[in-house]
Amino acid sequence: xxxxxxxxxxxxxxxxxxxxxxxxxxxxxxxxxxxxxxxxxxxxxxxxxxxxxxxxxxxxxxxxxxxxxxxxxxxxxxxxxxxxxxxxxxxxxxxxxxxxxxxxxxxxxxxxxxxxxxxxxxxxxxxxxxxxxxxxxxxxxxxxxxxxxxxxxxxxxxxxxxxxxxxxxxxxxxxxxxxxxxxxxxxxxxxxxxxxxxxxxxxxxxxxxxxxxxxxxxxxxxxxxxxxxxxxxxxxxxxxxxxxxxxxxxxxxxxxxxxxxxxxxxxxxx
Length: 270
Prior knowledge:
The protein has helices at 2-38, 48-51, 72-79, 95-102, 124-133, 136-152, 154-168, 192-215, 223-226, 254-269; strands spanning 40-46, 82-87, 112-116, 173-177, 219-221. The chain has 270 residues and is an alpha/beta fold. It folds into two domains: 1-38; 40-269, Rossmann fold (3-Layer(aba) Sandwich), CATH 3.40.50.1110.
């Protein structure tokens, strides 16, 4: 009888141990897909405002794309536990360039996409050059031509680009990063007329991009609010004025990426 009791006790311990092992095994099996589902696979697309042109420090391997470890995509990736990071934004990129050269970085497993695109499609680089060296009227004429492109051709280009992004990464959260106004109010080396004209153009560009992002069910980050009070000629500017190299002019500086774009992206990605 004593032996029977000891045998039953042993069997109970075996059953308890088996139950514990089964629970542990089940937890491990469940943890694998949960971890995979929560992994961040981030692709950063776009133009110079995404690549980091203006920060003054670039990855030599990126060539003329001027990708920087100080740009907001790199900063965001470094601050989060990402399973993969595809940084393909390139200075000078248009929507056509993005479709031809950057969209291939997207996967069906991509979970986050950021994109800044559209300014080069309407010749904004040429506009600011004209406004810098030309008369007030030259600036107004250049902006008027760009605004015509913003109204008439840019929406279709953005729609096509956003549709391609969704098609290549259908499960991804897509965040469209908008452009800031370039200039602060107050005293400045550029005339008040030119600054107002350029800032008004930035408003139209932002409104147009925001509208197309909303139509695509993407999240829009307004660069104007992200950089408010820190334009060119502000006490603490987050955008370069005319600088050397010239290609860094009129682009967010290191503070612009770290203190402007990065917190704004964090705010919508949690």
